[in-house]
Design brief:
This protein is mainly α. The chain contains six helices and no strands. It has one domain: Four Helix Bundle (Hemerythrin (Met), subunit A), CATH 1.20.120.
């Protein structure tokens, strides 16, 4: 994450108070979980399946942070399409976000529940996560720009 994106995320968390305490609390929870899971995904000492699952969960929570401003909640990965499709904040990036999120979910399922462990899948999961993260941070940056 670049310094500009980090500052944007911080400012977004501070400015999301328009919907009251609940919306702010949701934003704080999703931001905190996104950051924690991202750190877990980047820890080399964690196993490959855990790191991939952490990338998936980090992506889930940054997506939740984006749609929370519209008072929407994904709640479960299976609901991602319907929620993201209905979020005005995501328009123009919906297809990209959904395709990448579903690819990341597929890799997660293969690694966590499948028979093998594949380092190439970790690299792929990281690239997909970074694409989702970049798009979400751009949306959040647009949200707080004057």
């Amino acid at each position: 994450m670049t310094g500009a994106h980090s500052r944007a995320l911080l400012r977004y968390g501070q400015q999301i108070t328009g919907g009251g305490q609940k919306k702010m609390a949701d934003a704080i929870v999703h931001r905190t979980k996104y950051e924690a899971f991202k750190r877990d995904a980047e820890r080399a000492e964690n196993s490959i399946p855990i790191r991939i699952k952490a990338y998936f969960l980090a992506a889930f929570h940054i997506l939740e942070l984006v749609v929370a401003e519209d008072d929407l909640h994904i709640q479960q990965p299976q609901q991602a399409r319907a929620v993201i499709d209905s979020s005005p904040k995501v328009k123009g990036k919906t297809k990209q976000l959904l395709e990448n999120f579903h690819q990341l979910d597929k890799i997660r399922i293969e690694e966590v529940y499948g028979a093998g462990i594949n380092g190439k899948n970790l690299k792929k999961a990281q690239r997909i996560f970074e694409t989702i993260e970049k798009a979400c941070l751009e949306i959040l940056q647009e949200e707080i720009s004057p």
